[in-house]
Structure formats: C-alpha cells, structure tokens
Write a structure and sequence with these properties.
The protein is built from four helices and five strands, in the order βαααββαββ. The chain is α+β, with helices and mostly antiparallel strands. α2 runs antiparallel to α4. Keywords: Lyase, Molybdenum cofactor biosynthesis.
C-alpha cells in the first residue's frame, strides 16, 4: 500500500490508513517565544491584564491538538489519549520554552498534534502579552521525537529510527 497525499493523477487526497495496524503512538514537540526581559517578568509574576498566561496557553495548546484535523489539510481526526503542554523559563534568552506531548492508540501518528499544540501555545502567549510587547518572536517550532507506527521510533539529532 502506497501512503501518499497524491493520487495516481497527481491530485491531493487524504491518505487511506484503513489497512494499517493500531499502535501506541507518541510525539513530542518544542517551541519558543522570545520577548523583552520585562515582558517575561510580567508573565512569570502573573502581572498581565489578561490573566494567567501559562494556564491559558496550556489549555489553548491542548484544545488545538484535539482540533489539528480541522486546521491542517488532510490530517486525520485522531482520538488522542493524552496531550500535555509544559513551559520552561529561559531568562538567558528572555524566552518561554514550550514542550508538548501528544499520544494516541491508532493507525496514524500524532506529530502534527504535538506541533500544533506548541504553535498555538506560543501564539496564545503572544496574544496575551502583545499589549506590552509587540516585538515578541515565535521561534524554533520543531519535532523532538516520535514513537510507534510502521516507521518506528525517531529522535531529533539521530539519523537512526
């Protein structure tokens, strides 16, 4: 079975995964949003008028992961078993690092769900802090690892599966 988003005529299509086995699948992604040091301190001290940035960004990331199939063309609607969004403060870079995990038992991977969660969490942080810092930069959204499925395990920095 050829897994492709293109049909025999070169037209876009959703991949048919019906013949694939259900397996446990996990993906982890990373994102970062850089800002002025005073903006970072306002976020850390919960001093922004819009409220608790981390709680709101966490919920937004989780909700986005659950709706990835509505946002990214030809993604499958996946029943997620777990999504997490965690934050780490990097004062040296004046940034918030975002770490997401998405898991499922199914026929297709969850890389896009983890990446979408990181992206939307970063966008939510931007939205909540833009009144004090419009020059924030969302940077380096990428996949850290994936496990499960026919292609096996992969980890960033390793050419091996």
């Amino acid at each position: 079975m050829k897994l492709s988003h293109m049909d025999d005529k070169g037209n876009a299509k959703m991949v048919d995964v019906s013949a694939k086995e259900n397996t446990k699948r996990t993906a982890k992604a990373y994102g970062r949003i850089e800002m002025r040091p005073e903006t970072l301190e306002l976020i850390v001290k919960n001093g922004l008028p819009k409220g608790d940035v981390f709680s709101t960004a966490r919920i937004a990331g989780i909700m986005a992961a659950k709706k990835t199939w509505e946002l990214i063309p030809m993604c499958h609607n996946i029943s997620l078993t777990h999504v997490s969004v965690e934050f780490k403060i990097d004062r040296d870079r004046s940034a918030v690092e975002i770490f997401t995990t998405a898991s499922s038992v199914g026929k297709t991977g969850v890389e896009m769900e983890a990446l979408t969660a990181a992206s939307v969490a970063a966008l939510t942080i931007y939205d909540m802090a833009k009144a004090v810092d419009k020059e924030m930069v969302i940077a380096d959204i990428y996949l850290l690892m994936k496990s499960g499925g026919k292609s096996g395990d992969w980890k960033r920095g390793s050419d091996e599966k």
